Amino acid sequence: MPALEIPAQIRLPAMQGKQTHPLARSTMANSQVLDFLLPQLFSQHLKPTKQHKMLENVDDYMLQETKEVYARINSFCQRLGINVQLEIRLNPIGDELQVFGESQHCKTLSEFINSDHWLKGALSWLQPNYLMLAQSLEMISFSHAYKHSPSHALGEFGYVDQVNNAMEFYLKCGNCPVELVTESPLHIYTLAS
């Protein structure tokens, strides 16, 4: 049975005639009334912080391949002396791996990845597998939320009908530990360290 939504109560002073002192009375209100009465709060809606989650059920072969990818990328970043954190998007297209990033280091890293056939193949294979693991965890989160409040879950997880459930797959490297990350609008999925 879905939880009943109870409208918020606010107190508004009631002015009767020429009296100068307000008489308090309760007024039932809904969110539209509150949004109208409190526009500064309405305009300051903050983006919710994304919740970090660990990818589960990663098989040994994927973990082994991931460790080798980390080692190769880390070695290359050290040789180049990359001292900034990079987040690069990876997109397999045919036999090339498109690497999206805004710095010169990303372009150099793209050339390195595409010149290393094993690395290119490993990343092209790992990306859809990690996306699927993250999508399955996202669907589990959705089903739990739907069980408690269908309307809230449909609003919160409205992005699941987009391409790849609106998830992005990227590689963090540079002055931080190398890490493959899958990110949805609500969650950031990573491997346990």
Furnish the topology, listing elements before pairings.
Blueprint: E1 8-14, E2 23-29, H1 31-37, H2 39-42, E3 51-54, H3 60-80, E4 85-93, E5 96-100, H4 104-115, H5 117-148, H6 150-156, E6 168-174, E7 179-183, E8 187-190
Parallel strand pairs: 3-8
Antiparallel strand pairs: 1-2, 4-5, 4-6, 6-7, 7-8
Describe this protein's structure.
- The protein has 193 residues and is an alpha+beta fold.
- It folds into two domains: 8-42, no CATH class; 51-190, no CATH class.
- The chain has helices spanning 31-37, 39-42, 60-80, 104-115, 117-148, 150-156; strands spanning 8-14, 23-29, 51-54, 85-93, 96-100, 168-174, 179-183, 187-190.
- A hairpin with a 2-residue loop joins β4 and β5 (96-100).
- The longest helix has 32 residues, at 117-148.
- The mean pLDDT is 78.
Stretches with pLDDT under 50, minimum 5 residues: none
* Rg on CA atoms, Å: 25 Å
| Cross-sheet strand order for the largest sheet | 3-8-7-6-4-5
How many distinct domains?
Answer: 2
Beta-strand content: 15-25%
Kindly name the structural category.
alpha+beta
Shape: elongated
Helix count, per DSSP?
Answer: 6
Annotation, overall tally of beta strands:
8
Please outline the major beta sheet.
Answer: 6 strands, mixed
Arithmetic mean pLDDT: 78
- Alpha-carbon distance between the termini? 40 Å
Helix-strand pattern, N to C? EEHHEHEEHHHEEE
Helix content: 40-55%
